[in-house]
TrEMBL record:
GO-annotated biological processes: 'de novo' L-methionine biosynthetic process; homocysteine biosynthetic process; transsulfuration
Protein name from the UniProt record: O-succinylhomoserine sulfhydrylase
Family named by the database record: Belongs to the trans-sulfuration enzymes family. MetZ subfamily.
SUPFAM superfamilies to which the protein is assigned, alphabetical: PLP-dependent transferases (SSF53383)
InterPro entries cross-referenced by the UniProt entry: Cys/Met-Metab_PyrdxlP-dep_enz, O-succ-hSer_sulfhydrylase, PyrdxlP-dep_Trfase, PyrdxlP-dep_Trfase_major, PyrdxlP-dep_Trfase_small
Assigned EC number: 2.5.1.-
Organism of this sequence: Ancylobacter dichloromethanicus
Positions bearing N6-(pyridoxal phosphate)lysine: K222
Reactions it catalyzes: O-succinyl-L-homoserine + hydrogen sulfide = L-homocysteine + succinate
Record keywords: Amino-acid biosynthesis, Methionine biosynthesis, Pyridoxal phosphate, Transferase
Subunit structure: Homotetramer.
Record carries keyword Transferase: yes
Taxonomic lineage of the native organism: Bacteria, Pseudomonadati, Pseudomonadota, Alphaproteobacteria, Hyphomicrobiales
Length: 407
């Protein structure tokens, strides 16, 4: 039997990695190598951990001895994923969850109690709006929905009991933008915590913490995995928020990411810049091409000059993103005829994938809302949301142009 190898030497410290460019951080950050010195990060499929002594177990549970206790609390593979994403986002800490909605719900419930008040933008992903509008009030937490683009509405909604502001930008599916820095200033003046769902922009294209947000949440299922494989979510925040609110909530309620899913997400981060850049380039090209095609009445893309908030998009984002939203003539019937003729682009409610995916929000992600509520959010029967993948943009253009002939 050969002698157990020692830990390989560490070449780059976390502080040195933090000074590197984002693309390098996403390859080098957060690595915990075993004594075997593996190149690819290890996948630790374990539920629990053993201790050298009863005294060490006691110290571990008291928080006096660093290390892992139980994978519901933390895991070496999940820890690598969290550390790497925190380095990219510029956050002090990150905690992974089983899904994006687990991250959203945990970020809210960990800090709220009966009698508190939440202000949120009304244009939200359907599940997020359910949590704000229906779940929180069950626990005696009041909520107010506002037009996210109206700064006066944010200010007017503040009460003495207001504890949280919540928004997504760009919004799903209308690609409406909220001025994060301006809302952050209002939130801070009110003594509230601003949570930003940054899934559409991705960490490559927008940095909410740098704009004043307190907490950032992701569905890592989307661009971070980016290949339709696994579910995961992430909450990024300050150490104080983690210590005061989040860590105990996650530990006791258990919305834990599986080690395998965390490993898939960790590897996904290595190629995230390449995938987002390619998809975004194609999305911008497609947005321009769609605007010239018959059968389409409106195209929404943040970095097109005809977007209602183009100037804000250029100021707040580093790119226009990977999604294009457009309206097809003929309402629902026209949209369905178009969708059913697509061959390269496939119908799915997912996004941020290597494959181009299209959905009809009014009958899928936002179908539970009344027509009046959807109209208030800017979601109409002919609206289509296109998540642009890695296919050749000319093939995507040809597929869409051919399908539009059915409209």
């Amino acid at each position: 039997m050969t002698e157990t190898p020692s830990l390989p030497p560490v070449k780059l410290s976390p502080a040195e990695i933090a000074e590197l460019r984002p693309e390098t951080r996403l390859v080098q950050g957060g690595i915990l190598r075993s004594p075997f010195g593996e190149t690819s990060e290890a996948l630790y499929l374990t539920q629990g951990y053993v201790y050298e002594s009863a005294e060490q177990a006691e110290a571990r549970f008291k928080g006096e001895d660093p290390g892992f206790i139980y994978t519901r609390y933390s895991n070496p593979t999940a820890a690598m994923f969290e550390a790497r994403l925190a380095l990219l986002e510029g956050a002090e800490v990150a905690r992974a969850t089983a899904s994006g909605m687990a991250a959203v719900t945990a970020s809210l419930l960990c800090q709220l109690k009966t009698g508190d008040h939440v202000v949120a933008a009304r244009a939200l992903f359907g599940s997020c709006r359910y949590v704000i509008e229906e779940l929180l009030p069950r626990f005696g937490i009041a909520t107010t929905l506002v037009d996210g683009t109206d700064l006066a509405a944010w200010k007017a909604a503040v009460r003495p009991q207001t504890r949280v502001f919540f928004l997504e930008s760009p919004t799903n599916p209308t690609l409406e933008l909220v001025d994060i820095a301006a809302v952050a200033a209002i939130s801070k003046a009110a003594g509230a915590c601003l949570i930003v769902d940054n899934v559409f922009a991705t960490p490559m294209l927008q940095s909410p913490l740098a704009l004043g947000a307190d907490v950032v949440v992701y569905s890592a299922t989307k661009h971070i995995d980016g290949q339709g494989r696994c579910l995961a979510g992430v909450v990024l925040c300050a150490e104080k928020f983690l210590d005061d609110h989040l860590q105990t909530f996650l530990r006791q309620t258990g919305p834990s990411v599986s080690p395998f899913n965390a490993w898939v997400m960790l590897k996904g981060l290595e190629t995230l810049p390449l995938r987002v850049e390619r998809s975004q380039t194609s999305a911008a090209t497609l947005a321009d091409r769609l605007a010239g095609l018959g059968g389409i009445t409106r195209v929404l893309y943040p970095w097109r000059e005809d977007h209602p908030q183009y100037e804000l998009a250029k100021r707040q984002m580093r790119g226009g993103g990977t999604l294009v939203t457009f309206e097809v003539e003929g309402g629902k019937a026209g949209a369905f005829r178009f969708l059913n003729q697509l061959k390269v682009v496939r119908i799915s409610n997912n996004l941020g994938d290597a494959k181009s995916l299209v959905t009809h929000p009014a009958t899928t992600t936002h179908q539970r809302f009344s027509p009046e509520a959807r109209a208030e959010m800017g979601i109409f029967e002919g609206m289509v949301r296109l998540s642009v993948g890695l296919e050749h943009v000319d093939d995507l253009t040809d597929d869409i142009a051919r399908a539009l002939k059915a409209v």
